[in-house]
Amino acid sequence: MMSCKRATEQMSQKLDAPLSLIEKMSLGAHLMMCGKCSRCQQQLEQLHRVCQKRSETKD
Amino acid sequence: MNAAVIDIEEHFEKVRPRLLAFARLQLEDEALAEDKVQDTLLAAYEAIDRFNGQSKFETWLFAILKNKLIDEIRRRSREFTTDFDADQVAEVDEMFDERAHWVSGQQPQKWVQPESSYLHEQFWQVFDVCVFHLPKGTARVFAMRELLGIETDEICDSLGLSQQNVWTMLHRARLKIRGCLERGWYGREEIEQ
């Protein structure tokens, strides 16, 4: 089982480059089992979206 | 003036409108944007010996401008005062135990503020404080990737870092900013909407 720290590394990397099939599967398996990491992933994705909004809201 | 100088001026005038548009977008201050573009030209003159011709001249100018904008955004963020202490946010190594699982006090909490609360100007003040509490190099990489939307390949090239290095810096930056925003914004119930 992947550790939480490793899972956070993969969820961060996923925002920059596609994961390999194996990476996707092991991250997916971890997230199904781990509510803390699932929440972390949602929040990192939200952070990513909000950053993209920054230039739009600055007009 | 020698031929190289005349050459830069000519190229620079062609790229200038795009540099200016980019600077305006980032700074929302016409005069300051002009200044930064002017600084970029001066820096380009001084550093022309280091332009090796392998990258496009325009890409090189943009790289100089981006660094100037990041420094400016950094400088501004230090002027903000907010009522939370970003120094209290844990380091990434403190977030996980020896088995690399979340430490109990560091687990991500439910966020009470909605995602749309970024529309508040105050959100961005908190956000800037969080970004600029990162180590300088990490803040720069994060800003290039998430605020300027530059791909990691290009960040590696322009800063001379390995892909793994950049991914590690982004991972640390995102976890710290997540924790910092939770403390300074999303986890706080008292913010008026």
In short:
Chain A is mainly alpha-helical. Helices cover 78% and strands 0% of the residues of chain A. The relative contact order of chain A is 0.16.
Main interface by residue count: A-B, 29 and 35 residues
Please trace the helix and strand order of chain B, writing H or E for each element: HHHHHHHH
Order of helices and strands of chain A: HHH
Q: Quick one: overall form of chain A?
A: globular
Number of helices of chain A: 3
Profile the largest sheet of chain A.
none
Work out the helicity level of chain B.
55-70%
Mean pLDDT of chain B equals: 85
Give unreliable regions of chain B as ranges.
Answer: none
CA radius of gyration of chain A is: 13 Å
Distance between the termini of chain A: 46 Å
Please count the beta strands of chain A (DSSP E, at least 2 residues each).
Answer: 0
Please, how many helices of chain B? Answer: 8
Structural class of chain B: mainly alpha
Instruction: Characterize the quaternary organization of these chains.
Output: heterodimer
Q: Tally of extended strands of chain B?
A: 0
Shape category of chain B: globular
Features:
heterodimer; A: 59 residues; mainly alpha; globular; B: 193 residues; 8 helices
Describe the structure.
The complex is a heterodimer of chains A (59) and B (193). Chain A has 59 residues and is an all-alpha fold. Chain A is 78% helix and 0% strand. Chain A contains three helices and no strands. The termini of chain A are far apart. The mean pLDDT of chain A is 92. By secondary structure, chain B is mostly helical. Chain B has eight helices and no strands. In chain B, helix 2 crosses helix 3 (57-79). The longest helix of chain B is centred in the first third of the chain and has 25 residues, at 3-27. The model of chain B has no long low-confidence stretch (mean pLDDT 85). The chains are: A mainly alpha (59), B mainly alpha (193). At the A-B interface, helix 1 and helix 3 of A face helix 6 and helix 8 of B.
